[in-house]
Amino acid sequence: MSFKIINGWLQNVKQVISPFYNERPQDQPISLLVIHNISLPPNQYGGPYVEQLFTGKLDPNADPYFATIYQLQVSSHLFIRRDGEIIQFVPFDKRAWHAGKSQFNGQENCNDFSIGIELEGCDTEDFTELQYQQLATITLLLQQYYPIVNITGHSDIAPQRKTDPGPCFDWQYYNQLINQKKQTNLIFLQLKQIEDEMQRIKLWQMTPPHADAFLSKEPFAIDTMEANEWLQWIFIPRMRALIDASANLPQGFALHPYFEEAFKEQHYEIDRLLQLIKQLDDLSAIND
Ligand SMILES: [Zn+2]
Predict the structure, then answer these.
(1) Cα 251 to ligand 1 centre (Å)
(2) Where are the domains of the chain?
(3) Which CATH architecture has domain 185-284?
(4) Which residues are catalytic?
(5) Mean pLDDT across the stretch 52-71?
(6) Distance between Cα 224 and ligand 1 center (Å)
(7) By the 8 A CB rule, do 230 and 162 touch?
């Protein structure tokens, strides 16, 4: 799913406005992302209680534990449920109250310069694949809009008081997903540039080759298609289908040597296209 942010609000997600926020100090850029976990009652999922806590509406009688926390004035920017649903409570440009007394790299009061994301979960259970996928997507999006340079856990900025997101949060997998999605975004843009360039030099065809040509079992369909036909009608559509399906992309491929050879006799101006294909090869290798 692709998201965008307008006026500090993520579009197309549930918005529940919290009263627990204020202005950020001026001249302090949003440079930190803080990952948390929360579940209410502890270790129970799916209920309305986190939303109620972050909006000051938690009923102290609904659970014995709630009597100890219902008066807290706390919030986060985002809450990601086990099924991947995202709820936003505070616009990103405002200061949510998620970190409490805290310090990152010697800088105190992390709420001033951070965005807080709560994952529905606890310290003793794995988070869900849907949560990791959403979190990684949102992380990349936030990095496009805000000058975020670090990502940390609540326990790292308030080590005496906090243990979340806890030992079950898989930082390595999270980082791997971020890199994968970054690569996918770049490849998506590169394919578009290749298409545009092929249009420009009139190598982009209006009608596909004969259906039989698609039955080739050879690499690059070398026995039935021209190099540019294979690129337009087989390679690019396949890559786009994988991207649409959020599937893993082939890694470390090398198209450039074949195209350099195939275009040797071309009368088109193919230098720029070859350069774009080389860049695509390079992008496919960054997560090897
Ligand atoms: Zn926390």
Answers:
(1) 36
(2) 5-169, 185-284
(3) Up-down Bundle (1.20)
(4) 118
(5) 97
(6) 59
(7) no
